[in-house]
Amino acid sequence: MKAVLASLAVLVAAASQAQMKMSLSVNGEPLGTATISQKVDQAGHLKQTIHMSIDFHGITSTVDTSIETDRTGRPILEKSTESHGSDVTTTALNYLADSLEVSRNESGKPEVLTIDYPKGNLADASAVWFVTITPNVNATTTYVHYDLPSKSWQTKSATYVGDETVPETQRKGHHIHHDDGELWVDDKGLPIRIELTQAGVKMVLRRL
Question: What is the pLDDT of residues 11-68, one digit of tens each?
Fold first, then answer.
């Protein structure tokens, strides 16, 4: 469940602007809500926050995430606090000039790692699509992403599929296919629907 929440946070952060609420369901069962906010500062950096509140089989979980990226979509700093019952985990990913610093504290056990960057592009251009940039149909971005659960670098990609009717609605949206799931956003980059399927679990966020 933790890995699925982490992936969902990445998807939400790639498709948010201003502030809004969304409903959250897992395999069709309503489980909670998410509040998303974003602003672009004077330097052109995107600063995003996500709060998710989930009740899964009687266990209450919350995920609070803040992400800062530069104008190209390259991450600068990511912080998260995950609460699952009595377990609390805090994580910070600080993208330095030559390496990634990962600070993690899980149930009072701190860990700090310094990880060299791999070859490849760190910037996810889709993070700014329809926020500050309007991509062409079939525009694709490929980048390397650090995956916390596996403690490894992974190559990810996202493609702007085009405009279509958002599932379970009558409205149009910009469809972005991501290796981690599907997103439909409006003209300002605000999410209308987000889907993530992982390990047989399908999570859906719908705009309220």
Answer: 555 544 467 899 999 889 898 999 988 888 888 898 888 899 988 778 888 999 999 9
One-letter identity of residue 129 = W
Helix (H, G, I), strand (E, B) or coil at 109: strand
Euclidean distance between CA atoms 97 and 137, whole angstroms: 33
Taken in order 116, 6, 93, 101, the sign of the CA dihedral is: negative
Here the contacts of 42-50 (C-beta below 8 Å, separation 24 or greater) are: 43/70, 43/71, 44/70, 44/71, 44/132, 45/69, 45/70, 45/71, 45/76, 46/70, 46/71, 46/73, 46/127, 46/128, 46/131, 46/132, 48/13, 48/16, 50/9, 50/12, 50/13, 50/16
Residue 184 tokens read as 């439909």
Instruction: Specify the pTM.
Output: 0.84
Pair 174, 188: CB distance under 8 Å: no
